[in-house]
Amino acid sequence: MPLTSRIQDFASREITFGEAGKNIVGKYGREAGHRIMAELVAGANEIRNEIILSMRNTPKSGRLYSRGYSKKGKPVMHRASSPGNPPAVDTGALLRSIIADARFTEVEVGSIITNPPYPIFLEKGSAKHRLEARPWLEPAFKKHEPGIRDNVRRVLNDIAEEMHR
Asked: Which of 40, 44, 71, 77 is the most exposed place for a label (fewest CB within 10 A)?
């Protein structure tokens, strides 16, 4: 069964079994669809957790800069991650925005921040904003995608065996 995935403009990944999923539900029933979706949801949650851990544990070895001043008038400093590493946590807004969302035949994992679109700037970089990429979504997705595919394949094999008993 072909799983498809695509990156969205606002820094999220959609994983779907679309038409193939509808055919499976038609052939094997809703329970088959629920079992496959359970694997997709579990995989999306693994990706989400990987993203969060990568941001929390990224080396803070980039530029040190002031983000403004505290109420006491002291500079509030932030050390960024170096290019190529996941972004370092600053305010925590991006970290809190990481979600895994399930629909009929798809799950989506990524950031719900769309305005300003800084999650995609961090993921891909931005020449306009002089920001080098600090990928956080694709590395997590690439790490877990093979396991998700294997788990869905296993469930499909189990369903097929059950139907032939």
From this structure: 71
